[in-house]
Give the backbone structure.
Amino acid sequence: MIKLPMKSRFLAIFIVCTGLSLSALAHNVFATFTTIEWNPDDKSVELVMQMHAHELESHLSLNLGERLTFLDDEDYRKLEASVAPVIARMVALEVDGQLLDIHYLGMELQGQTVFLYMESAWPTAPKTIKFMNALFIDELPGQNNSVMATVNGVRRAGETLAGTGPVVMEF
């Protein structure tokens, strides 16, 4: 092991920390990604939304008025229970001109990513999907909410940013 003088150790730590801080600042990305797929077998539109866990954790903690973490089992249950009202308020799905009720099915944490599972009943292959995800748009600078929909193997995609409206996808 190499022993550095105290001054050199502080300088090395400063350089490493500064490098990490600048790297983190240069890579601030705030995004959600939603996949939408029409399922002809059960006549439904299925949605899976993924995002960084810390962003959802912070948002829900602010809504609930207490600091919660996905790492604590009791907090996890509180966070999961508070997702459905946020989805109802911040996400809208319209198919062929009809606004659909989005049913929140559950949440899964995989590492630092949260997956939210939702669905809506729809009997036939959609011709038009209009999707709005306003989650984090007014809270995080540069937030990008991307969406990709698939109907009978045809894919369409778009994104919602600050100042934009819903994504309209034709099939």
Remarks:
- Residues 29-170 form a domain with the Alpha-Beta Plaits fold (CATH 3.30.70).
